Amino acid sequence: VKVVVASAFKDLVHRLPRDVLVVFHAPWCQHCQMLMPVLAKLAKTLENEDVDIVKYDATENDTPKFYTVQGFPTIFFTRKHEKTSPILFNTARKHSTLLKFIAEKSTGPLKNFDRKGFSQAYLHKDGAPTYTDKMERLKQNKKHGFKRNHDEL
Q1: pTM for this predicted structure
Q2: Which residues are within 8 A (CB) of 90 and not within 5 positions of it... i.e. 6 or more apart?
Q3: 64 with 76: CB under 8 angstroms?
Q4: What sign has the CA pseudo-torsion 64, 67, 71, 77?
Q5: How confident is the model at residue 131 (pLDDT cuts 50, 70, 90)?
């Protein structure tokens, strides 16, 4: 999680060709304090993705142009080619909901997560299952139940 101040906001958020999750917070705010470990975990989860997570102390710095902060924490997602149109995050501030939000709103698909925020990292490992007959497997599973070997029926 990067800490940004007003003088560096344009350079670290608007000029970099990356998607950015911006969290406007206040150090004294308990909700913000509870959010910080979630952001650290999210940053670790997304460390191999083209997404930056930035926290901005809105009590010490003026609110940047294009953002409206009415309470703390306020979270926006900014796509790399749409820096003047931030998207407000307005749901439960949990790791899973933040990850899903980023996966859905990101400019391009994430490397290790699908658009719903589910991990796809296992697909790139040796021994991972590959399925080419999805509809056939679904028909068999509906007909015979979800067993590993249909010959045992």
Answers
A1: 0.76
A2: none
A3: no
A4: negative
A5: low
